[in-house]
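User: My collaborator sent over this chain with a note saying "see what the structure looks like." That's all I know about it. Can you take a look?
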Amino acid sequence: RSIKITEECKCDLNLMLLFLDKAHASININTIAYLKPTHTYRSDSYPFGLGGFNHKGKAWRFYLPPELRFRASSSFLEHLASVITPWIDIIDGELKAGDC
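Assistant: Without extra context I'll predict from the sequence alone. Here is the result:
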C-alpha cells in the first residue's frame, strides 16, 4: 500500500525542516517563553502633540509647532510616540539586555 504526497505537503515539510534547522542552530528562550514585563510604557498622540510615560512615572511630551499640526495621521503620531517612549529609557541607560 502506498500514498501520494502532494506538492503542498512537500512544501510544508520543507518549511518545517527549515524551522528545525534554525532551531537547532540556536533559539533565544525569550522568544518562546512568557516573561513578566520588566518595563511598561504608555504613549498617545493628539492633533497638537504627543507624549508618553513609563511604569516609574518618567513622562515626556512634545507639542507640535502650529505649522506642522494636522499634517500627519493620528496613526503615525501614535507610532512615533510608541517608539520615543522606550527610546528615552534606552538613552538614559535604564534598559538592559534581557529586559522586556
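A starting point for your reply to your collaborator: The radius of gyration is 22 Å.
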